[in-house]
Request: fold
Amino acid sequence: MVPPCREGVSASMPCATNGLGEGRVRHGHRGSGAARSLTLPSAGCRRTLSPTGTCLCARRGQSQRTIRSTMSILINKDTAVIIQGITGREAVNLTREGLDYGTKIVGGVTPGRAGRDVYGVPVHDCVRDITSKQHVDGSIVTVPPRFTRDAVFEALEAGVKLIVIVTERIPRGEVAQMVELAKQKGARIIGPNCLGVLSPDEAKMGGLGGPAVNVRRAFKKGQVGVMSRSGGMTTTATPSSCASACSP
Reply:
């Protein structure tokens, strides 16, 4: 697929076509698994695109077509989330921050602590105790390193499709085993040693951005998505974004 061009800049190659005079690209939307069709300009058109994605065809008589593309979104306000290891100190903070931001946290897991609650979120002995009663989309794993693999396996076997692992210092061999099982189950793992995932004004999983008030200042809805392999750089960039958002 030829990437959209800035206004006034032409693409350097003709658009691919489907034999009907139109270019079409099948684009997988990772959040829903649905494929979307993008309609590109006519064959042979060296396209110039406006910021809205409209093709400004140079050839007279060619119709303008709009490219509609959707960013891949992993979570939103309807994503049902659980927290494994919810009674731990870090997990308690993540629970409070997530609830304040609007994340739909439906339960937590700490073996032997069933019947308690953390900021109103009920605690259960195992993941199955939650998934047997309601649908769960994602899990935040905050258990100690020696228990992380078993916790992830438990979530995957219970049908959870998105797992964010906050825990660090997990042996690489165990990480490989978790990733392999996730592939077999059609699930996705973010982490380990991860700050989390965030969709502005929707939900967040993990500690990315810190307290809800800071997250709302630093992250806004838009057309740009950011992925980072460095938690340190992300943490460093966030206060700068916050300061920029707070400046007059």
User: Anything to note?
Assistant: Residues 1-68, 240-248 have pLDDT under 50 and may be disordered. The longest strand covers residues 23-28.
